[in-house]
Design goal:
404 residues, mainly beta, Neuraminidase, 2 domains, 6-stranded antiparallel beta sheet, 5-stranded antiparallel beta sheet, globular
């Protein structure tokens, strides 16, 4: 080993085509932004090439002449000259791109273009399962795996889509935008009674961090509740006095007063040998009876997923339930606090599974034969289920240098 870089911050590696240096893009958690470093294989020393103010390049590839570094940033393709290290865009569209390969002469880029197709539907309870979905909304390139649908206290749906939060009528006929922040992103939203919504809101107000914010039900009067580096998955306590959330870098579940009157405090630490699910969202939930917290975590070795149950007000070790096929795209207690529902993925298809906390046999709530679930939400009475489902289509695209 010639250098030690935290894996959670490392995005991509690219050999220089003219020197014996290895360049790598990374995310700086404390600064809340991206950077590109260069490692000299000869000396084993690294140095910073550039720190970005408002973006995080992921994939990087050098041109054959060693003067241009191509990159994917925020799903788009751009390039940097070795003279000023500013990103200049190549693509500016609603699609998303991944991977980059250059031809030997450096005049052709190969990449993979992604398009997302998604629907929002509501299912009604039919016995112990749910019936056929009632389609409310169908969109192209509007939603992705990070989008969230949830029920509001007035039985409408609240939908967060990256930089936008809107209310969708349960009949699908009305949309009301509650907030929009083009320079930021909303990772998750949850309700706290009839008066407030809780948001994981990243880069809001000029910050470069992901923090927990409280807004009123109409999206106004934002109040920042946490000051961590990467705070995720806020949920309200049953008595509406506390907000529990995941402090990702420290592997803690913490809490902060809903009214903003106090500082955050760590409540539980992840069990040793367990971490957040790499490919999923962080879905923390509080049971309706106020006694338990649940979160899906993956074993650091082997990757097996468990539903970890913490007992509030107790120092006892958490209980763990097997969560076979858990996709990490949603977890919620049922209305009676006796089971947890979570999304499962088998052969590329998602459904929602209910697992009783007493360890008895679980069952699927539906039997979809296509699509993946990006978010789901059981209504407070447990009689309706909102689901955001989608899939992505991918094409290999060649971008050629234009003749001057």
């Amino acid at each position: 080993m010639i250098s030690d870089v935290p894996m959670e911050s490392l995005f991509s590696l690219a050999w220089s085509s003219t020197t014996n240096d290895l360049f790598y893009s990374r995310y700086l958690f404390r600064e809340g932004t991206g950077a590109i470093d260069a490692l000299s294989v000869d000396t084993g020393k690294s140095h910073r090439m550039v720190t970005f103010k408002a973006t995080s390049p992921s994939t990087i590839r050098w041109s054959p002449d060693g003067h241009t570094l191509y990159t994917i940033y925020s799903g788009q393709i751009g390039f940097l000259r070795d003279t000023d290290w500013n990103i200049e865009p190549i693509t500016r569209d609603t699609n998303s791109y991944s991977t980059l390969t250059l031809s030997a002469d450096g005049r052709t880029l190969a990449t993979v273009l992604h398009r997302n197709y998604a629907t929002i539907s509501v299912l009604s309870q039919a016995g112990r399962e749910f019936g056929e979905p009632h389609l409310l909304l169908s969109q192209s390139n509007e939603f992705n795996e990070d989008s969230v649908v949830s029920w509001s206290a007035d039985r409408n749906l609240l939908v967060s889509n990256s930089s936008r939060l809107f209310r969708l009528g349960a009949d699908g006929k009305s949309q009301t935008q509650l907030l929009e922040d083009s320079g930021a992103f909303i990772q998750r939203r949850s309700s706290c009674g009839t008066g407030y919504s809780l948001l994981s809101w990243g880069y809001h107000g000029g910050t470069r961090t992901l923090n927990i914010w409280r807004v009123t039900a109409d999206g106004s009067s934002p109040l920042k509740l946490t000051d961590g580096i990467w705070d995720e998955s806020p949920v309200c306590s049953a008595d509406q006095k506390w907000v529990y959330y995941v402090d990702a870098p420290s592997h803690h579940i913490s809490r902060v007063p809903l009214d903003g009157s106090g500082r955050a405090e760590a409540v539980f630490r992840f069990p040793q040998g367990y971490d957040l699910i790499p490919a999923g969202s962080d879905w923390l939930d509080v049971s309706p009876d106020g006694n338990s917290l649940a979160i899906p975590l993956a074993e650091s070795k082997g990757g097996a997923v468990k539903i970890v149950l913490f007992e509030l007000g107790s120092s006892r070790p958490p209980r763990m339930l097997n969560a076979i096929h858990c996709s990490g795209q949603g977890l919620q207690f049922t209305s009676d606090s006796k089971s947890v529902a979570y999304s499962i993925r088998e052969n590329g298809v998602d459904n929602v599974w209910v697992q009783p906390l007493d360890g008895s046999a679980g069952h699927a709530l539906m039997h979809f034969t296509s699509e993946q679930i990006w978010s789901f939400s059981l209504s407070p009475d447990g009689k309706s289920l909102a689901i955001l489902r989608g899939h992505g289509d991918s094409d290999v695209v060649l971008l050629q240098e234009s003749k001057q």
